[in-house]
Design a protein that fits this description.
elongated; two-stranded antiparallel sheet; about 5% strand; Lysozyme; mainly alpha; 9 helices
């Protein structure tokens, strides 16, 4: 049982349980609001550290500018590096092969660098299907979709040989796909582009 002291009457009065509950709820609410305010302040300060005083609208323009970047082999290599895609020299060789050296109809019409189909059982950035292949709004979405494919199905493969074996058996219908990919790697010096050991 709780009691409160009344200064007016100089007596102790019994506090009803409903009043105790109200006091506790008020205290918890005040503490929660203080915590949310503190977290909000920390987050705002972190954003100012990262972005300075750039207005929010300009940050959106910067992000959109990166997404709509014009395609080039150099830009593709940079995007593969940025997404930290494993075995980037192999992935770059696949893009060259699957897009017909960046001239195929599927690449030009669908922004599809890897001949990907619309994924049914994993996360995907594909918007729809067109010409029997996945359609992407930008070529960068195609690279992101390959990264999602790699994460879903190839994450446990540790060696280049295992990776190539998987591709040969599961990725393309062409015979000796792994050897064709590695020939492109060699012909285009792709390991050097990605600063990998030869």
């Amino acid at each position: 049982m709780l009691y409160t002291y009344c200064r007016k009457t100089l007596l102790y009065k019994r506090v009803k349980p409903s009043k105790i509950l109200k006091i506790l709820l008020t205290t918890v609410t005040i503490i929660s609001l203080g915590f949310m305010f503190a977290v909000n302040t920390v987050v705002k300060n972190k954003i100012k550290e990262d972005f300075g005083e750039i207005p929010y609208e300009k940050r959106i323009v910067i992000i959109n500018g990166m997404v709509n970047q014009t395609f080039s082999e150099k830009a593709l290599a940079e995007e593969i590096k940025r997404l930290n895609i494993r075995f980037p020299h192999i992935v770059m060789a696949q893009a060259i092969l699957e897009s017909g050296h960046f001239k195929s109809t599927v690449f030009r019409a669908n922004n599809n660098l890897f001949g990907m189909k619309v994924a049914a059982q994993r996360a995907t950035t594909a918007k729809s299907a067109n010409l029997g292949h996945a359609y992407y709004d930008t070529w960068k979405e195609s690279v992101m979709d390959y990264a999602l494919f790699q994460s879903a199905y190839l994450r446990d493969l540790r060696t280049e040989a295992d990776y190539l074996e998987y591709l040969d058996k599961n990725y393309a219908a062409a015979a000796d796909y792994d050897q064709v990919v590695m020939q492109v790697v060699k012909d285009k010096n792709l390991k050097e582009i990605f600063n990998e050991d030869i």
